[in-house]
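Journal club prep, shared notes

We agreed each person brings one worked example of a sequence with its structure written out as tokens. Mine is AMP-dependent synthetase/ligase domain-containing protein. I'm keeping it raw so we can talk through how to read the token line rather than staring at a rendered picture. Sequence first:
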Amino acid sequence: MDELKPCTANSSPLTPLGFLERAATVYGDCPSIIYNNLIYTWSQTHRRCLQLASSLSSIGITRGHVVSVVAPNIPAIYEAHFAIPFTGAILNNINTRLDARTISLLLQHSESKLVLVDYQSRNLVVEAISLFPSDIKRPPLVLITDHTDHDNDNKSSQTVDSNFCCTYESLVTKGDPNFKWIRPQNEWDPMILNYTSGTTSSPKGVVHCHRGIFVMTVDSLIDWSVPKQPVYLWTLPMFHANGWSYPWGMAAVGGTNVCLRKFDAAVIYKMIRQHGVTHMCGAPVVLNMISNLPRSEPLRNPVHILTAGAPPPAAVLFRTESLGFLVSHGYGLTETAGLVVSCAWKNKWNRLPATERARMKSRQGVRTVCFTEIDVIDSESGLSVSHDGASLGEIVFRGGSMMLGYLKDLTGPANVGVIHADGYLEIKDRSKDVIISGGENLSSVEVESVLYTNPAVNEAAVVARPDEFWGETPCAFLSLKAELEKKPTEKEIIEYCRARLPRYMVPKTVVFKEELPKTSTGKIKKFELREMAKAMGKSKVSRM
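Then the structure, token by token:
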């Protein structure tokens, strides 16, 4: 068989960009995007993306260039997931809640050639650009106006000042709908640049190739069993790891993308009823939001919700599912382009009590079908830890959706977890979040899970506080539910934990805050809380 070799017919570079072309053929007259009163079909979305790519190419955007987008979940950012790579360029989404200094640093680090800016972020990005050193060329800015909004900012959104070269819609209008998009020369060509959310350190530039995004997109659809033509509500920011690759996934299955500029629990329920939403994704903070809405009624039809990020507490999962949401849980990183671990559900678990089902579902699970290998190893020996649900180790990955690497950087984060006897992974912490108290490795996640079972607790985060005797002890930061008539005291919270945890895991300090600091994707900023705990000084707790 030596004469049988790869050829042009069987070795085309893998890329998810072709999903849009197919969607226009198969689902051409079906809705692709719904945003306020605006509705596009898949034929229209395909044409608009080609027109935008044509205009970008005409102004010099080409293979290898980075084009940045600063926008919430609106049609423009969805179209950018196809149109920018259509030119051969690299898409770089930047979260809208960063400060001007950080955005400036990211634009400089990425050497961005052009920035598409939502009108509500115009002042922020203009300030970011003004912070560029004089010897670094500033990228042109394109203003994304919004004709469908009716808020007080809308009038100003239609005005293009001297800081912007043109509007987004003018680029789309001027473009050629017959533009021949530029296919990757090699499936390893860079396609995406994402910056990590910076929950534990400074953001890093993660680079993904066409092949990795293709693998991740197909894997995500298979693992979540997404059917044809779902109605997908965008409660997960597309600037967060490209919405876990579902912008391309919805094109593959001809889904309807219901876009939301901003949302809260009431808006989510309204959109579900109005559009017949079937699927949505979000960090555990979204689950907490929808399950804590006062007077919320169970759904008429079930809605599949996929959650990941921080491990969701079992109590939050239980409350969410009691309202009619079908929760799936997974784990991934910006570095893996999406979720590569999922809590693959076993039918026999349906016979368990509801609270036990929620506990099982809070585990991250097993590798997804397209991923190669996931393990938990001892960082010193490099060997796998015992599958006993207790032996902590570093989580390691191998698979087709792993990043090409960090842009201009080589170092990366470490995450800590255990493997249960049934082979299912459970995250215990990021390595920086493990608390070492009296020589014992203490998982802050386990303490947080207990705190979330307290009916008064809205949000919980546990970090290390320096201790004169133990070295470190757990310090709990809590926000309480707004509707409480009587708020618990620090002593009552400590006693609650003492009845449910080993003594060394019980928080020695409890701090109440109106709201815990979060990243743009809803992850609690533990590095800020660690600094707060450190600033309190060493605790002087009596020996246990």
